Amino acid sequence: MSDAAKALEPTLAAPAEPAPRAPGPFSRFERMLAFRYLRARRKQGFISATAGFSFVGILVGVAALIIVMSVMNGFRRDLFQKIVGVNGQIYLQSATGPMTDYDALSKTVAAVPGVKRVLPSVEGQGLASTPSGASFALVRGVREADVTPILGPYVKLGDLKGFDAGEGVAIGSKLAEKLALRVGDTIKILTPNGDQTPFGVAPRVKGFPVKAIFEVGTPTFDDAFVFMPLGLAQAFFDKEGQASVIEVYVDDPDAIDAMRQRIREAVGRPLLMTDWREVNGVFFDALTIERNVMFLILSLIVLVAALNMISSLIMLVKAKGRDVAILRTMGATRGAIMRVFLMAGASIGAAGALAGLVVGLMVATHVEAIRAWLNATFGANLFPSQVYMLNYLPSVVEPRDVAAVALLALALSFLATLYPSWRAARLDPVEALRYE
Questions:
Q1: Number of domains the chain is built from
Q2: Which residue, 195, 228, 188, 198, is CA-closest to 212?
Q3: Which CA distances in Å does 396 have to 69, 70, 234, 365, 373?
Q4: Domain boundary residue among 269, 296, 318?
Q5: Which long-range contacts (CB under 8 A, 24 or more apart) does 368-371 make?
Q6: pLDDT per position as a tens digit, 92-147
Q7: How confident is the model at residue 16 (pLDDT cuts 50, 70, 90)?
Q8: pLDDT at residue 4 in the model
Q9: CA 76 – CA 83 distance, rounded (Å)
């Protein structure tokens, strides 16, 4: 082959080796370094102990928040069912005189979409007495078909069968205890609105056999309520053919404004209308305020743990100053150093939040069993029903609350790592290695 041909022949050069790529953000090297820094040596055991306290603090804070929020949710649900559910959510009263057309009005309201049940009743106050004592009583006259679905599940003794046909009454368990009454005994009820005489209005008193004893679980009902047949109550309180109020039970008590508007349009005449928010609103508002305050107070536990994490990470940065300087001289960027300490701190917060979620959910879902075990073990009544109006410790885990607690813990943990990580990234290698 001629020299010209050789000159024209393409040269087969060996392929050039690709330049090594720098590791990207949150690379395997950075993750390895972050978790290695969490395992402090024996001489740096104080840093590891401080990080452990941060972990425990976040765990306790998250678990306490979930447990307390679940119990507060359970309180609200059960009290709402027992106070509002038994009473009804909307109350209708006549604005133009006695309500004599309550039957037709009840059918009209019952046909409104979203109305679950309608209960016309006669209400009056009286004094219930027996040879054992006397007590205030709130008497309510109702029909058997209306009261059985509401009061039936709470009847402990006796029954409501044939309630309309007889002259028996149903009374609360606490009232029965105070007056030493059993099913079949007679309770006397005195009302000041009796017959008109030349000397004024004479009180009216009449005895009624006890047909049933119920226990709703709230003092409002169990201490004072007496249910009697509607016709019997109308005659006793001199309200023949009348109803004092129509109670309306709706499917969604939280959408009460829309239901009021529908009922007002369906009735088409002036009515005095109130709802559960006006009757019991102050009580449930107090529960909401207490729930929010408890959330803020218990959040301080997570905040203190996050502040403790700041101190432990700052000490870690001081202890690893020489290592950071060497890494910087070997080409590690400030961003890489910052990410290393970010992952070190965030891993503590994430692990604490996860452990707190597990512990909190386990306790919240078995809180009543734990209470019963503690009562049996130590012989103490940790949740007296006469104080808290419930005979058990309720708990309702809301996914929204759990998510809020987890996000709060993670956010505080991440914020706690920002300053120490920034401080590590700003470390000057020359200053760090000057005296080494």
A1: 2
A2: 228
A3: 8, 5, 42, 8, 20
A4: 269
A5: 368/392, 368/393, 368/394, 368/395
A6: 988 888 888 888 899 999 999 999 889 999 998 889 999 888 888 999 999 988 88
A7: very low
A8: 38
A9: 10
